[in-house]
Amino acid sequence: MKIVIALPHRFSLWQAPPWFIERLKSQFPQLFFAEVKDYMGLPVQLKDADVFVGWSLRPEQLSLAPKLLWIHSPAAAVHQLMFPALVKSKIMVTNASEVHGPVVAEHVMALMLAMARRLEMAFWFQQQKVWGQEKIWDQKPRPMEVAGSNLLVVGLGNIGRQVVQRAKSLGMQVIGIREHPENGNEGCEAVFAPTHVDTIIRDMDFVVLAAPLTESTRGFINAARLARMKPTAYLINVSRGPLVEDAALVTALRGKKIGGAALDVFEEEPLPPTSPYWTLDNCLITPHIAALTEKLWERHYTLFADNLLRFMSGKDLRGVVDKQRGY
After folding, report:
1. Does the annotation mark 72 as catalytic?
2. Which residue is catalytic, options 240, 245, 299, 300?
3. pLDDT band at 325 (very low <50, low <70, confident <90, very high)
4. Among the listed residues 178, 168, 247, the one whose alpha carbon sits nearest the alpha carbon of residue 216
């Protein structure tokens, strides 16, 4: 069996460390591992590949891999793989949402607490060497407690479920949105289908986007839904940038129609210097760092090695993607 690992990336953390493939070779000496450090070498390696590990695979590359049985993405989102030829094929696709869930959920809580306690204002006053106690109190929305507040979590996959657990431990009232509410409430007070969001969003203090990018979630937060949010409510996006209509959110933030937003993901990354988000004092920007942790590749190894054992023995894999749904 041949496993092709192709993880070149401009960001060093997204590149597999040297020990990753060496440990795989040691644990699975009966298998052949081919590491591709430059996509130029990918076509040759795909010809006899059984398993592919990578961030993406284009249709023309898939056509070069007649033996391929399984694709594993180290990302949580796999929309880049959901092209017709792959969706129609019998190739299994797995993702790493369970790797990213805990640390992304921690990042959500950090953003939520930062906004609730108006830390972005405190940091700004610190840079100015100003004791801003009264100014922070006078600014709307004022610092608030998260205990007893209402949180809407859109998407109850691994990341969303982890957010629910942490929010509940802080005493928040959590409502979930998922495509199939019958699949369970995951600890939420209640779970509804996306068709109910327009009514529910009116009462929320925080809205967290943790849903996959699909045709139904693209533009999920638009002008109409922003208009329904409380003027003190906060929006947090750790999913994918296109879930939010940028022009609508910028307008809402400029007009102080909502309390603020914390964004870790954007439609264009890196976020260009010309983006209006940079100039908004009620927008907290983190540069797609929600999943960053020194434990990342240990978690990746644990998941992939376990799945490889399962694959070899014909057992069900962890993190299997429903290709028809796209997640």
Report:
1. no
2. 240
3. very high
4. 178
